[in-house]
Design goal:
- The protein is an alpha/beta fold.
- Helices cover 44% and strands 18% of the residues.
- It has eleven helices and ten strands.
- The chain has helices at residues 2-7, 10-22, 25-32, 36-50, 68-95, 115-125, 138-146, 192-195, 208-219, 233-241, 290-312; strands at 100-106, 129-135, 152-156, 164-172, 175-178, 199-203, 225-230, 247-249, 264-267, 276-283.
- The chain has a five-stranded mixed beta sheet with strand order 2-1-3-10-4, sandwiched between helices.
- β6, α9 (208-219) and β7 form a beta-alpha-beta unit.
- The longest helix is centred in the first third of the chain and has 28 residues, at 68-95.
- The protein is globular, with a radius of gyration of 24 Å.
Amino acid sequence: MELLLSLVSTTSLRYFAEIVRTGSLRAASENLYVAASAISRQLAMLEESLGAPLLERRQGRGTVKLTAAGEILMRYHKNIVKESGRLHSEIEALQGLKRGHVNFGMPESLTRDFMPQFFSGFAKRFPGISFSVKVGGSPTLAEMLLQDDLDACFTFGEIAFQDLSVVYTRLLPLFVLVPMGHPLVGRRFLRLSDCAEYSFSSLDSSLWAKQQSDEMLAKAKIRPRIALETNSYELMRNVAGEGMCLTFTTRPLEDPLAPPRAGSYVPLNDPRAKPQRLALSVHKGRSLPIPVEAFLSDLTAALRQAEKRANTNKAPS
């Protein structure tokens, strides 16, 4: 390992890792704001110093493929990242929680009601801790977590990655967000068959919940009229509130009994309507910095309190 360290420069290793992470030299160049020719030179120097090719040269476009030597170097890079995190963690432990940073990921549906309040409250207690927040689909967030680009993240659905460790999980029942003035307003609950003749908004294929929704409707033998397709939960809620169509959704975590901005939540009481699984996860086996540990401890406590309130004051069904 010491011999390898003497042969590898920090810059060339960083460029190499970015090529692997993004899938191409061009993408690495755009992300790093460094000329592709400069990255290519660093890669060539790295291969020359190690005496072995690191990437397979292939014609045309496509994701880069590591050679056997490249695989070894990537393992070395990941070990450096983990050791660096451990070093920061030990230093932060000496300093308490005066400084630190949390890299967090979450789906867009949590950006409105629960997490803004939590971030604000945590920041008041620990003003020296800053955040980087990635908003995206659950599969993308899980991949970023496994690459250690995130310290922790929320996901929806059954994300099947063995190296994820679930810190908190909860099943969220589905509701239909019904616009004001709609024929279904005032119903105590709805079945899928009740909604069949009306138009819906739908998530697009970039989000996990799209597959769940399609399977649910297929089992009910319903071919929905899709009025709007999007990757935005917030847009789906808003167009339903404006009277455009129905929307399948969950209630807010922070205040599950609060009415939506417009329209009403009606429970979807149907055996084919599976609840959505919310999970808070970390990379299994990774040593997390002290600020991240404090963040996760407070976040799981807040999630359990919200769940307790929801169970204590269930809305009538």
